[in-house]
């Protein structure tokens, strides 16, 4: 999935969730359909 498919608000939320210890990458995937690798890539931008 491309980063451009997400709004700025969604990107902020995905990154916020990834930094939270209680949120798994699986939970992020189920909500946003984005893999762990893509989340990490997103966080590096």
Characterise the protein shown here.
- This protein is an all-alpha fold and 45 residues long.
- The protein has one domain.
- It contains 3 helices and no strands.
- It is globular.
- The relative contact order is 0.21.
Strand runs, count: 0
Distance between the termini: 15 Å
Computed over alpha carbons, the radius of gyration is 9 Å
> Helix segment count?
3
Mean pLDDT value:
92
Q: Can you tell me the overall shape? A: globular
Write the layout of secondary structure elements.
Layout: H1 8-19, H2 25-32, H3 36-44
Short description:
The chain is 64% helix and 0% strand. It is an all-alpha fold and 45 residues long. The chain has one domain.
Note the main attributes of this structure.
globular, mainly alpha, 45 residues
